[in-house]
């Protein structure tokens, strides 16, 4: 109740107890004293706060399309006469069929009507359709049943595409064949970065857009135009340039080791996936931990008949294929695994001692590591060995500093196709998230957390309750999300 009206939890509990005494509520109390409402006797008219939150109480079974802002009484009657009996059916209609049902239903008005109708379709129906689409992509044509896919990375020996300037016959410095930073601060004055675009967008490990036939759960979100949503590009606080520009220019220099440091959910991997998607580069993300050994990166020695032969691991095979290798949480690896990469970081060649091989990677291969900052919030993120740290070009990726910029990015991600969270509410949520990032005693809401929060809202959770739930979910043992609730009341 306190998520909907301006009442404390105790005031709400007192009202319910008073309602029980008055015969309004029937309560079932547990041995611990918690109460569950098991029956209600409505008293008078429905309170305005309930109507505002859940809509008018319906006494009839006929759908009322007048909930859509452009629908008048005449249009409502025309839609029902045309056979539309629910919002799901209406949302699937074509503009051509809707336009012209009445003299006022122009094509542009019909487009807006259908778009708004989609927001009234129960989310469960949309989820079912999306799940069916993904399931159909995984049907084995031989068995006509869905199946898991297992890829032996050591057998994926195809290389990434050739630089686009070569296949198109352009000059190497032709801007059409390179990544141009035109988002964030560079939107008004695009900056060519020199990072060549490759000519094979169908190379298996190129990050896919959500609309791609082979898209999986890790696909990049798209906007209303089907284009991948560009990231909200932060400015490196020391170099004072947009991160996509800085990192793309380093990637353009070849196998130059890059380190990206930033808090969880700030978009480190999304930035790298976005750059790989825009340039058709293979993306191999590898999570490491304290137990990671060199053979986990480069591959073990395995028996093959009477001999022992090397089997390529993800890092070695990715370097051979020309992928961009992203190693996450690099500092937690044992020193032996990190040191095994020193020659690659120094000289651009990989010496795999156990294999007896000196590997000169594909010219398109790149190496990036990511890590959280070694602060109190990330107690398990150890500082790197200074000898290893000095080999990297290091950048800091903070959370987005501008509220409106983060709102724009989230709006494109979560409201593509239909509105999940209206922009004014989204802005209040982002403003509160920025407050959590400035208070070390509160749980921190990252950009990633905000996309999850919006997902809860899409599932029917009230915005304030969704914020509370995500705050609770990310809280450290020594943090108390309740401490932030009073400030949350100022926003929602």
TrEMBL record:
Pfam families per record: AAA_5
Single annotated GO MF: ATP binding
Residue ranges of every copy of the ATPase dynein-related AAA domain listed in the record: 260-392
InterPro entries (UniProt xref): ATPase_dyneun-rel_AAA (IPR011704), P-loop_NTPase (IPR027417)
Protein name: AAA family ATPase
UniProt source species: Haloplanus salinus
UniProt lineage: Archaea, Methanobacteriati, Methanobacteriota, Stenosarchaea group, Halobacteria
């Amino acid at each position: 109740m306190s998520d909907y009206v301006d009442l404390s939890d105790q005031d709400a509990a007192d009202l319910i107890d008073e309602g029980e005494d008055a015969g309004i509520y029937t309560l079932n109390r547990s041995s611990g004293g918690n109460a569950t409402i098991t029956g209600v006797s409505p008293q008078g008219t429905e309170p305005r706060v309930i109507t505002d939150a859940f809509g008018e109480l319906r006494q009839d079974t006929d759908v009322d399309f007048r909930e859509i802002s452009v629908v008048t009484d005449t249009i409502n009657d025309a839609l029902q006469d045309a056979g539309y009996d629910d919002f799901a059916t209406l949302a699937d209609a074509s503009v051509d069929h809707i336009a012209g049902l009445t003299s006022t239903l122009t094509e542009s008005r019909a487009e807006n009507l259908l778009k708004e109708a989609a927001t009234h379709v129960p989310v469960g129906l949309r989820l079912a359709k999306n799940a069916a689409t993904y399931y159909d992509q995984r049907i084995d044509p031989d068995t006509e049943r869905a199946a898991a896919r297992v890829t032996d990375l050591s057998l994926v020996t195809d290389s990434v595409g050739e630089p686009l300037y070569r296949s198109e016959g352009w000059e190497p410095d032709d801007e059409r064949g390179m990544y141009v930073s035109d988002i964030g601060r560079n939107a008004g004055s695009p900056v060519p970065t020199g990072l060549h675009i490759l000519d094979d967008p169908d190379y298996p490990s190129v990050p896919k857009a959500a609309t791609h036939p082979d898209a999986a759960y890790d696909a990049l979100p798209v906007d209303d135009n089907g284009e991948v949503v560009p990231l909200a590009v932060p400015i490196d606080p020391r170099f004072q340039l947009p991160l996509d520009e800085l990192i793309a220019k380093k990637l353009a220099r070849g196998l130059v080791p890059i380190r990206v440091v930033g808090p969880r959910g700030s978009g480190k991997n999304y930035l790298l996936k976005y750059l790989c998607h825009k340039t058709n580069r293979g993306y191999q993300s590898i999570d490491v931990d304290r137990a990671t050994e060199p053979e986990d990166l480069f591959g073990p020695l395995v028996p093959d008949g009477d001999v022992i032969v090397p089997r390529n691991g993800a890092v070695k095979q990715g370097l051979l294929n020309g992928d961009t290798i992203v190693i996450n949480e690099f500092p937690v690896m044992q020193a032996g695994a990190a040191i095994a990469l020193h020659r690659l970081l120094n000289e651009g060649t990989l010496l795999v001692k156990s294999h007896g091989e000196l590997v000169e990677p594909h010219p398109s291969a790149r190496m990036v590591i990511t890590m959280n900052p070694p602060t109190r919030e990330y107690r398990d993120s150890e500082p790197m060995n200074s000898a290893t740290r000095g080999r990297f070009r290091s950048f800091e990726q903070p959370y987005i500093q501008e509220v409106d910029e983060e709102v724009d990015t989230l709006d494109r991600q979560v409201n593509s196709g239909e509105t999940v969270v209206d922009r004014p509410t989204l802005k209040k949520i982002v403003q509160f998230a920025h407050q959590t990032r400035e208070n070390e005693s509160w749980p921190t809401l990252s950009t990633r957390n905000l996309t999850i929060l919006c997902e809860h809202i899409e599932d029917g959770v009230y915005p304030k309750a969704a914020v509370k739930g995500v705050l609770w979910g990310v809280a450290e043992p020594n943090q108390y999300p309740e401490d932030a609730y009073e400030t949350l009341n100022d926003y929602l």
